Amino acid sequence: MGVGERMELKGFWKGEIMVWLVVLMVIVVRRGEGQLVQNFYGSSCPDVEQIVRQAVQNKLSQTFITIPATLRLFFHDCFVEGCDASVMISSPSGDAEKDAQDNLSLAGDGFDTVVKAKQAVEAACPGKVSCADILALAARDVVVLAGGPNFNVELGRRDGLISKASRVDGNLPSPNFDLNALTSIFAKNALSQTDMIALSGAHTIGASHCNRFADRLFSSSGADSSLNRAYAEQLKQACPRNVDPNVVVQLDPTTPNTFDNVYYQNLIDGKGLFKSDEILFTSSASKSTVVEFANNGGEFNAAFVAAMRKLGRVGVKTGRAGEIRRDCSAFN
């Protein structure tokens, strides 16, 4: 091989290496743009977690509804536009995400928890922390305060710039969904069937209005056969026909104020309030997971934490996308 050929070959490999370096840099940058990190506010607002936790504790001292309301708010937010606090926006024309039919039952205490936490954070670190991150932290905190597992929350989300009621339709699970429908809607958000079953465990706390499950009690053929008979009678007593629409029933009739795995034990006993709850036990594809979680609280806690971390990554805005709202209920 001549000198010219060697130099040409050397130049070829040098060019190849440069191309691969550029490709790797692009991949790293693209991945970094969508990544969240645990200590995102380490220098800009180092006490953010303690500030949010204190605000959540203050709100909880006023009402226990803080816990289920905040956790449900996080779920409803992430499943529509991604975890970007779009559900927090208030619209004078009543067409924001929170105004959608499926969101009208979201308790005001969840919104108030985030608003109060944001105010406390702004007082310490103005313009630094997104409402989306505050909601994610508050969702973790209410789980812990109810006796559930503690876990690190990835941060770095920015607040979304879109909040429309029309975008909610078809993006949230229904109390009447079967297993295939549940699995499908969670899969749209990169969540597995196991993630879905674990996140359903959030129904170990909270309550529901009677109209969300009345069809299981008063159909033409009688009460849903998958319901425990004694439990069905209790529900009929609490929710008779033409009941006051403000009446609510606990999702977990056994330990309604504790975040634990009793929800799954209730499913085995035929005490799942919604069809979408009980179907997790009556369907062969999900039954074994329900039994596993019912028998092992540690397994449930681990699966719930893993699912919450995955949920918290859904549709996040990072980098230069979105904004850091000054007021969680309004775009800047």
UniProtKB/TrEMBL annotation:
Residues the record lists as binding Ca(2+) 2: 204, 252, 255, 260
Residues annotated as domain Plant heme peroxidase family profile: 35-332
SUPFAM superfamilies: Heme-dependent peroxidases
Keywords: Calcium, Disulfide bond, Heme, Hydrogen peroxide, Iron, Metal-binding, Oxidoreductase, Peroxidase, Secreted
Residues carrying the site annotation Transition state stabilizer: 72
Binding residue positions for substrate: 173
GO molecular function: heme binding; lactoperoxidase activity; metal ion binding
Residues annotated as binding heme b: 203
Statement: the UniProt record of this protein carries the keyword ATP-binding: no
Subcellular location: Secreted
Main function: Removal of H(2)O(2), oxidation of toxic reductants, biosynthesis and degradation of lignin, suberization, auxin catabolism, response to environmental stresses such as wounding, pathogen attack and oxidative stress. These functions might be dependent on each isozyme/isoform in each plant tissue.
Name assigned to this protein: Peroxidase
Species per Swiss-Prot/TrEMBL record: Cucurbita moschata (Winter crookneck squash)
